[in-house]
Amino acid sequence: MEYDYAEIGLKAGIEIHQQLDTAEKLFCRCPTALRDTAEHTDEFSRYLRATESELGEIDRAAQEEMRLVRRFRYYTYDTVCLVEHDEEPPAPLNPEALSVCLTIAKMLAMTPIEQVHTMRKLVIDGSNTSGFQRTALVALNGTLPGDCRVETICLEEEAAQRVEDETFSLDRLGIPLVEITTAPCMHTPGDVQAVARQIGMVLRSTGKVKRGLGTIRQDVNVSIRDGARVEIKGVQELDLIAEVVRREVQRQVGLLGIRDELRARGASVDPAVTDVTDLFAETQSAILKKAKNILAVCLPGFAGLIGREIQPGRRLGSEMADYAKKCGVGGIFHTDELPAYGVTAEEVARLREHLGIGEQDAVVLVAASRQRAGCAAEQVIIRATMALDGVPEETRRMLEGGSTAYMRPLPGAARMYPETDVFPVSIGAGLWESIETPELLTDRAERFHRDLGLDEALARQMAFSERLLLFERAVAEGVRPVLAARTLLGTIRELARDGVGVAAVTDDEVIGLLQAVEAGSAAKEAIPDVLIELARTAGERARQTPEERVAAAIEAVAPAISAADLEAVVRNVVEEREEFVRERGMGALGPLMGVVMKEVRGSVDGKLVAQALKRELERRAS
Amino acid sequence: MTGTYITDRDGMAVVKLDTGYNIGVSPGAVHLLERPAPQPAATPVVVQNPELPELAIISTGGTIASRVDYRTGAVTSQFSASDILRAIPELGDIARYRSRQLASILSENMRPSIWQELARSIHAEIESGASGVIVTHGTDTMAYSAAAVSFMVKSPVPIVFVGSQRSADRPSSDNAMNALCSAAVATGDLGEVAVVMHDTTSDDRCAVHRATKVRKMHTSRRDAFASIGMPPIGYVDYPSLEVSLSGEAVRRGTHDLELADDLEERCGLLHFVPGMPPEILDTFEGYAGLVLSGTGLGHVRTEWIPRLSELIAGGTTVVMTSQCLHGRVCDRVYDTGRDLLGIGVIEGEDMLPEAALVKLMWVLAREDDPGTVRALMQENLRGEIRRGSR
Ligand SMILES: [Zn+2]
Questions:
Q1: B224 alpha carbon to ligand 1 midpoint, in Å?
Q2: Total structural domains within chain A
């Protein structure tokens, strides 16, 4: 369902996190290479604790994380040093990463900060061994198409990758990352997607950002009038952004509807928790039977609303369950969905009677050890109370399909202090002016179409491809653009899909092969076979030059055939099929093409074969 | 754009923006809007459990607790018992605490006169009933201070030195675990001076090191401290805080309380390097004692012999240790060594150079008979010399 977004006052902003493809990490000299976790060379474990702030308060998001005492385990590699282990002070800010960040800032028409200070941003979910993420504000106030605006660009270190639960892999920690934050200047789900796409294009235009799943992440901020600011973390697929925004609007509208109805009914939350373990002594419900303690929370006036859908697959009950799960319970039961899960209608009736509540009222059950059940019941009360106020401010995580689940409260603003181990970096006028901005990929696609004769789709595909640089080099070295583009985007990709190890074929070999085709020493049709041969023999004859390797591969799959040889082959083929030729006349040309091409094993251009065949058929006809 | 003005540094004004980020801007670009009244820090009082044994925490400058002001980004060290307990509440389950801030200096600015003050403070705390003492100390020179205290104070109760390798403001700091382990040791069965720090890079175990046999062996790692020439005298598991002491560890109550806080400060330690000219020894003219950190079994170049001989004749006690750190000095194997013995250099056995230095300061402050000095330097007084080497 589509809403009138102006009417409901949708405001959205995005935060884009993009990994940079630099040689070294942001604060150490380790490579920015990702590793297979099976290759880890060692592991160690740590606890994190939030430091008390000056006001005697611990950050609210941090406090949430501390609810559970957690020990974190880290995998380390031979490509990781003591900086990632939080066992050594950081090296100076990586100048290459700063330069890429400034390039992006300049492309977005931003104003650089005079002197960049690295900060420590408190993060105690275990993803940073130090307990903080190093981050620096680099530039402000950029422009975007439409009336939208980029607020800030920051240069940060990437967090460690979660392997499972409380285990993290240190290969990713410290990879440079830019964080681009827009103003809340988007007013429809489509706007959000378009802005994300535009920024993504700018980032890729630098040629210095990492590609592939997980290298770019989008966080979306959404609020509607009377709703609340909700931050949705980690949307990886660009195509889902609009849907995520749409569903968040739906959720907030749904929660506001529930609020209004609760108020109209005079609903309330009973702060008393009742132990009802004995009521379920004989239950057939596996979960309840297993639990040491079953606690009930009464929600007068909530009946029917806890089970109401607010997002595909999500109900108010799901929100309560998310809060309860922070205490280590598996989930909750509520009367809107009972009888079910082995709980009988008689048991529900007995529960209602025991608690002395009516049909308009709902009950939420939590079942676990005394401590966990108590904690979970308290969380249910907290979340139910929020329902009376509407939409809580939250950080949420995306579920498959674009719905979301509660993660933690929005972090408070005050959770940064200076990284005193890293000196500030001045961005003088000289440095800023020396930053060259690359051509936008959209401009480049247009140029490929206009100047190089690629059709629009191929031009765009080429401009946005990872093989862009190789394409430009091939064209500069005399290869026809269409041949280069079709080989790089078509042939090589198809071979890779068929399991050929084309990744082992070097750029120099690809260029050498394309040049050989242009020089007539190999046929266009032989390209796949020669690539297969180059892949097969990769690593062999290491002392040969790329040209020699290409020549050897061509010789192996398609030995050179002289014009005289070709004539002989053609004559042979035609003679062997004399009757067929007589019957079909010039019409035999098509069917015989394939036969001749097979004989010459693709080492002659199809056009030359066709000419030779045509001449021979004409000679016979006359 | 608005924010909080923090300071001027290197010609730039540092401003903390409302988003939390600091930036540096030209001072001319900053306009003061208002000067908010400083907000007093909230300092809830921590109630201590009177049933538990009382420990004294003496701070010298090492930080086991800090507080971050996220409004200004300022990090301040915390020294009062109440502040430390708020930062590391689990300490309250182990003991009750009284605290004393002796000094607030960087470890590298430590000096013998402060070692002496420290020894006197520790003595006073134990005399007034502390069942153990924790000394917080910067890690760079912690081993020197711990060794010095172990000569100056004989104690029936544990005296535990502790610090942190990673700053206490960070959530990952080793401060809390080290502090908890040190409190566990200080309330336990130990009866000597020890250093308690991380045993591995993981937060799983602290090692208890004998003060005269411990050395900082890494610039930055949590497990930088190592016992040299012997295994640690104990371990503390974390988070269970179970203490296990080796058979060698001196037990609580073995010694009576005794203070001997004189030190001869005119002592030096010289690390010999190849080609070092004999004239360098002129610096030590008039010194009461000189510890040499020699090569291998305990050597310096042959050209040093005459000048060293003059120094010794002039009244300087010269003790040889090895820059190998591991193993025992033996100057009877090679000619140079025999020459050194011939002019009166004392073999420092398997003492660490730093331990030998503070021991020499302590011995020379009490004895001036060269024979007695030599005998004491070669006798094991505080576990600094072992019968057999490893
Ligand atoms: Zn590294």
A1: 19
A2: 4
